[in-house]
Design brief:
This protein is of the alpha+beta class. The chain has a single domain (about 5-165), classed as CBS-domain (Roll). The protein has helices spanning about 5-10, 10-15, 15-20, 25, 40-50, 70-75, 85-95, 105-110, 125-135, 155-165; strands at about 55-60, 65-70, 115, 135-140, 145-150. The protein is globular. Residues about 1-15 and about 95-105 have low confidence and may be disordered.
Amino acid sequence: MNTAHDDISGGHLRSNIGLEVLVQDVMSKDVISIQKYESIRHVADILSEKNISGLPVVDKEKKVIGIITQADILSMLGMRKGHTFKDLLKHMMGEQLPERKLGDIVGDIMTSPAATIKPNANIAEAAQVMDEKKIRRLAVVDDRNRLIGIISRADILKAVLRKLK
């Protein structure tokens, strides 16, 4: 039985659909990023306000050096798999935090290096990287590793569905 995930990482994308659509055609270009010295609390605020689940971490030259996600923050707080971001917010508002405090910086808990992809790659390649690394998004970088966009599994799925119509 094929699931949507199987279709994205396998069958449909290995057909012409995944090869003819480029990452640059479906990526989000207005990407919010953060630097490694920013506070975890600031990241949590951005994720909550913008209703997103992760942010690329860049240096002063906009080169991608990592990624920070809701899962990284939940893990830092000792939250178990299955907890939601709302659980995290409740935890931040009143419950005692574990040893680490939200004053810690992004660089302490970000995933580094971040998985990246070039804009001229096709979406089948992007889906394969996401599947292999078990991640939901890829930072899109230029030849100097500078952030120019982000592509998510949802972006890929939308592109495939548009092509199937």
